[in-house]
Amino acid sequence: MLLILVAYLGGVLTILSPCILPVLPFVFARSDRPFVRSGLPILIGMAVTFTAIASLAAIGGGWIVQANYFGRLAALVLMAIFGVTLLLPHLADRLTRPLVAVGAHLSRRTSSENESASFASSLLLGAATGLLWAPCAGPILGLLLTGAALNGASLSTSLLLLSYAAGAATSLAVALLVGGRVFAAMKRSLGAGEWIRRGLGVAVFAGVVMIALGLDTGLLTRVSVAGTNGIEQGLLDQLTPAKPAAPTMSADSTIMAAATEPQQPVLPIEGDLPPLAGAVAWLNSPPLTAQGLKGHVVLVDFWTYSCINCLRSLPYVEAWAQKYRDQGLIVIGVHAPEFAFERNSDNVRAAIKKFGIDYPVAIDNHYAIWRGFNNEYWPADYFIDAQGHIRYHQFGEGGYGASERVIQELLREAGDKAVPTGIVAVTGGGIEEAADVADIASPETYIGTERATDFVSPGGAVPDQPHDYTAPAALALNQWALAGNWRVGAEDAVLDQPGGGITFRFHARDLNLVLGPARNGKPVRFQVLIDGHAPGSDRGADIDAAGNGTVTAQRLYQLVRLTGPVADHVFSIRFLDPGVDAYAFTFG
Fold it and tell me: If 450 and its partner were Cys, which of 46, 100, 389, 490 is the partner (CB 3.0–4.6 Å)?
């Protein structure tokens, strides 16, 4: 109930943000009509459409983004017709009738000369407006969309999004009622109804042009988020309890390393092993069940194959699986995807083969097992005793000695008298080598607009359309920029023309970049420079000394491994072919 209230209040705050401006002309164009028969159905249509689109976008993946793109185009056409009716109702009637029968019918009903606008036509206009609505992704909406993506389709997910939409509709309703009275007073005192109608028509057309050019999600969002994010974050801080000081991060976090490693792990019962149902496939094993695992000590490892933190932990998990297999330890990898391409089971199979994983792996594309554990992190390890109780957990890299001692203790509790002692000595090579944690000053950095930070190409990102970007002459630490013609989406950026690149000023021993080839599978050649020079001995595992490499699969590419002292460096990559997908930088 508390989260529903927070969602509703977050929606109410949307009216304070300039990024709601593109929607306002369509709402206020009917401010002189009866609220119950005109304004109310518009707001209902907006709220329902927004809730449906937001739910599908958070849960359904990239395909719904394309569906919403065409829906926005249809809505823009509908709103342009509506604007014509406000400016030139008689001309609009003649122009639209032979082209769009439905649009003409709607135009006649929405004409200012029609005394009684129908509930149905207003509802349709509201639904179309909902397709155009792109609220600012402040902390509250970000929390809701992240939860929807990780928790899957459910009544609670839709209810939270509907609460947010209802909050926005409430504030718009108040503004609409006030605006209606103001407009009525102006018409009575000045006889300005015709000019008001034409002014609204101009405002509607301006809104259509603004949305078509992407200004609603670009310029207005950048202008507005600073103003409302502080209010929303303060609201969250007031209405939600404080989190513990132990390492915790957001719901889609990867964690680099544990802060401390207890010498004598405490093993209380933290819960029971939940059902392992819901995986779309099992690799290296038939499906396993919680009931069938009774009598065995179990380690459940949540990972995803492009997560550098997971890959650096992987050698330890594999070593434990081998060392304690004869004592009855069962290791289960749960692959929960972070990016859309990680839902492809063939990609996961290739990663399992590459890293030599031979223990069971559940493909948890719908986060069913993830939700069963109430998990929030990559990587995350859960240790289960022979009675099926969760006795210990480890979030993030590190804590390997404590984790292995937990395995030994749980095996002894299960009755094994010959549990091997000592701690495995693991030296991961290549991309699996442990990070130089003491000298990392660069954070994981996402390229898609949904989570991007420190992007400094002039003009900022232009979402979901081709745009020519340039890189500044100089970058501060952890700033990055695009160069060339890119299409920047919520999750990634796609290069539309050859010769484009990315520049990043970083401070770490290793630099990795998650990349994918062109959508048709064609490889993409690239060249890496460090401070303007070929990397030489500082090359990563996926390039040669001259900096040349090729993107052949959707995965994490190690591009830099410094051999000398760690310092600030400028990394640049130029792609010789079009079509590359760029997702995120990670460091080690």
Answer: 490
Which uninterrupted H or E stretch holds 568?
strand 568-575
What is the rounded (10 degree) CA torsion for 144, 146, 147, 153? Answer: 100
Give bridge partners of residue 335 from the DSSP assignment: 303, 363
Closest CA to 146 of 133, 154, 155, 157: 157
3 in Cβ contact with 109 (< 8 Å): no
In 396-545, alpha helices (H): 400-413
Beta strand ranges found along 321-379 (DSSP E)? 330-335, 361-363, 377-378
> CA-CA distance, 264 to 298, in Å (whole number)?
20
Taking only the tens place, the pLDDT of each residue in 95-153 is 545 544 544 454 445 444 444 446 666 777 677 666 555 444 444 455 555 555 555 55
Q: What angle do CA 352, 321, 430 make, to 5 degrees?
A: 50
Q: Give the largest Cα separation in the chain, rounded.
A: 95
| Side-chain-side CA neighbours of residue 447 (13 Å) | 27
Residue 522 contacts residue 540 (beta carbons within 8 Å): no
Query: Is 588 strand, coil or helix?
Result: coil
Do 228 and 12 meet the contact criterion of CB atoms below 8 Å apart? Answer: no
d(CA 430, CA 539): 11
Each as own residue / partner, the long-range contacts of residues 427-432 (CB below 8 Å, 24 or more positions apart, any chain) are 427/315, 428/312, 428/314, 428/315, 430/541, 430/558, 431/308, 431/311, 431/312, 431/512, 431/541, 431/556, 431/558, 432/311, 432/312, 432/314, 432/315, 432/355
Coil, helix or strand at residue 446 = strand
Give residues with Cβ within 8 angstroms of 482, minimum separation 6: 455, 457, 469, 471, 488, 493, 500, 501, 502
Tokens 């009216």 belong to which residue?
A: 15
DSSP secondary structure, 251-296, as one string? TTEE----S---SS------EEPPP-TT-SEEESSS---TTTTTTS
The single residue listed with the structure tokens 């207003």 is 122
Other CB atoms closer than 10 Å to residue 213's CB: what's the count?
12
Nearest 5°: the CA angle 126, 132, 138 is 110
Q: Are strands 253-254 and 377-378 parallel, antiparallel or unpaired?
A: parallel
Residue 504's nearest CA partner among 533, 483, 475, 545 is 475
pLDDT tens digits, 275-323: 999 999 999 999 999 999 999 999 999 999 999 999 999 999 999 999 9
8 A C-beta contact, residue 397 and residue 389: no
CA distance 416 to 413: 7
Distance CA 421, CA 430 (A): 28
Q: Is the pTM of this model over 0.90?
A: no
Give whole-number Cα distances, 88 to 95, 113, 564, in Å.
10, 11, 71
Q: Which of 547, 567, 316, 535 is nearest to 433 (CA)?
A: 316
Angle (CA) 441-442-446 rounded to 5° is: 165
